[in-house]
Amino acid sequence: MEVDIEGIIRCIRKGDESDLQTKLQDFNNEFAQCFFFNAEERNRQRQKELEEFRKNKVREYQDSDSDCDEFCPEDHSLVLRQNLAAVLVRFIRTETKSRLLRVCLRTLRILSRDKKVLGPLVTDGALQTLARLAGLSSAGLSRSATAEEDVDPDSQLYDDILASLAEAKLTRHGDNGDDEEDLDISDRDEDCPAADQDAKSDTSNANSGDLDSGGDQGSRCSSVADMPRGAAHQRVLVRGRKDRRESKMDGEEEEEGQRGEEAQRKEAMKVLCNVVYNSTWAQERFSTLGLLNGLTERLSSGASTLSPSSGQFYELRLMFLLTALRPELRLQLQQENGVSILTTTLESCLDVQWKDQYEVVMDSAAPPISLEASQRAVEILKVLFNITYSTHRQEPDEDAAALYRHLVGILRLCLMRRCELAEDTDELQGHTVNLLSALPLQCLDVLLLVPPDPDSQQSKGVNMDCVHTLLDFMERRLDSGDRVKEKLTPVLNLLTESCRVHCQTRLYIRQHILPPLRDVSQRPEEGSTVKSRLVRLMTHLDTDLKHCAAELLFVLCKENVSRFVKYTGYGNAAGLLATRGLLGGQGPGGPSSGAQYSSDSDSDTEEYRQVKGRINPVTGRVEAEQPDPMEGMTEEEKEEEAYRLVMLFNKLSRDDIIQPMGVDAEGKLVPMTGLRDAAEEEEPGDQSDEEPDEVEKD
After folding, report:
1. What are the pLDDT digits (tens) for 605-631?
2. Which residues have C-beta within 8 Å of that of residue 499, sequence separation ≥ 6?
3. How far is CA 108 from CA 127, 134, 151, 319, 346, in A?
4. Suppose 559 and one of 317, 485, 507, 591 were both cysteines; which one would form an S-S bond, judging by CB atoms 3.0 to 4.6 Å apart?
5. Could you give the CA distance from residue 536 to residue 551 in angstroms, rounded to a whole number?
6. Is 37 helix (H, G, I), strand (E, B) or coil?
7. pLDDT tens digits, 88-113
């Protein structure tokens, strides 16, 4: 269905609100789940494929897609959307009926997905208008905050826009004839990685993807007239996924009164989310205008009510985007008591009830966390991580420590409670682990202070239910095939640091990951046990991931080199040992981290003692006996073979194919030439020390 955008602009000029609402609803229904993507990337990919085919001389490349065969010098649909956005931004500043205003905001939300149309939405007046409609109060925010908002509707402006559109349309038809076809919204751009991720361009969806902090160059334009029209690019429409939260927008259209105003604020907040996400200029202006204060005030007032507004999710989403993209806003929110406000909001979201100072009531019969509550909780955890990630190594004062312990008590509930859907439970636990890894270590003891129940997991009388949940979470992440580093490193670091400071935690985790060795017929990395999967990560291509896995196993071995090699094999352990300068054995100072480990012994099992002498220390298993390659050779033949091997190694070294390495006095790998030079430097000193003795003897 073709939407008459020019007709929408004519209705705004005439003031025909009834017809305007109908046309805008048609536009919203047509493009509700469509997202705008630049076709330039698509054509660059096609050109790359063409050059690759020609270079390899596989076959002649035939481009069968007719959508990009012909380019008009000016994309008419893009210009229409740009002008529609400018007109709507001007129109929503006037006294408009609530129902029509919601429809206009929904249209602006759809348009804000397109970075090329953001110009009219990133001006100070537009941002302040949207903030006012979203219910954000601020000292500098008012309806007459800028001169732009005092401008009355000007019919001449609409006449000029319609005239320019008509002129562009005539030029377009004169260049291309009458055979031009409209874009097909069902045409998916398979080359675009964002085609299946609607959150890449519309952050109003709950399933947001990774942030792209880079904005568009055109977003700095203050009006449509400032945008280069002749350089407009063709856009393609791609249908996105439906919002999993299934907000009932159609039902909200008919609501009036308080619920209608709430729906209006929600739509305005969605537009702000899209604009801030897609434009670096909007992020900067949002920071300069001080709109974060209004957002914080609204969130604080919503946390104190029994039933927060349905738009609180988008308030949290906007706060997450701002703190993720603007470092100064992270610092500002932290300094303005943001941790306390967000903790209170999280407490209200999960309906927390306290049993003791830092102990939350855990009711096994309680219903699972609802979909809406879990998604709001996830957004809160993400914002908290943004403003607390630098406190991990800090020493908090008494008030801050009490606040963080209060927060950790709530995070224990996030770990132990289940959501309606398994994927929501995993997401909530994942963000909880991220936040726990960012908080000061001394505040995490709250996780273990809960008195154990008869059914609780225990270690020396300490409740290990949380630790057991973290182990289960780590095992699930070990089985995930994608984004292994992002999913595993937080929980590995959290378990490692917990084992360093809590001996009960280390003992419990060691019993599950490093049980006493019995079967040493397989390599340590072979098998499906947790230990085997962690040892396999020790040789992963990603340096950070393999270091995190090796560090956890090393701490479980109380940073004892011989025990670490015993469980992992010298070949797997060499990377960490070389990094820490322990290739020559345990350093003279003990654990380099300064951790205090218990004195429990690592007794060998009877099965291990029987085969201990036949274990290959490099592979960590019992190897099959191999025949002696020098059996039957005379001493002269052995010397000749040894000399031949030395000559081969020298040749490889001279040709820079290999570099012989050795271990220095500090236990680190260094080239053999360095060791030889160090030995030569020590010889003169030794001789000078002996000379006085010889003189005395004479």
Report:
1. 888 888 888 888 888 888 877 788 888
2. 505, 506, 509, 510, 552, 555, 556
3. 12, 13, 20, 20, 31
4. 591
5. 13
6. strand
7. 998 898 877 888 999 999 999 999 99
Other CB atoms within 10 Å distance of the CB of residue 193:
11
Instruction: Give the separation between CA 415 and CA 438, rounded to whole angstroms.
Output: 16
Note whether 311 and 265 are within 8 A (CB). Answer: yes
CA–centroid distance for 680 within its chain:
52
Among 372, 357, 383, residue whose Cα is nearest residue 435: 383
The domains of the chain are located at: 1-62+72-176, 290-450, 468-625, 636-697
In contact, 27 and 52? CB cutoff 8 Å = no
Say which residues have a Cβ less than 8 Å from residue 688's Cβ, sequence separation at least 6: none
Residues in the chain: 698
Supply the DSSP symbol for 220. G
Cβ contact 241:35 at 8 Å: no
H or E segment and range at residue 269: helix 257-278
| Cα(391)–Cα(443) distance, integer angstroms | 11
* HEC profile of 357-405: CCCECCCCCCCCECHHHHHHHHHHHHHHHHHHHHHCCCCCCHHHHHHHH
DSSP characters over 65-118: -GGGT---SS-HHHHHHHHHHHHHHHHTTS---HHHHHHHHHHHHHHTT-GGG-
**One-letter identity of residue 575:** G
Distance CA 106, CA 380 (A): 25
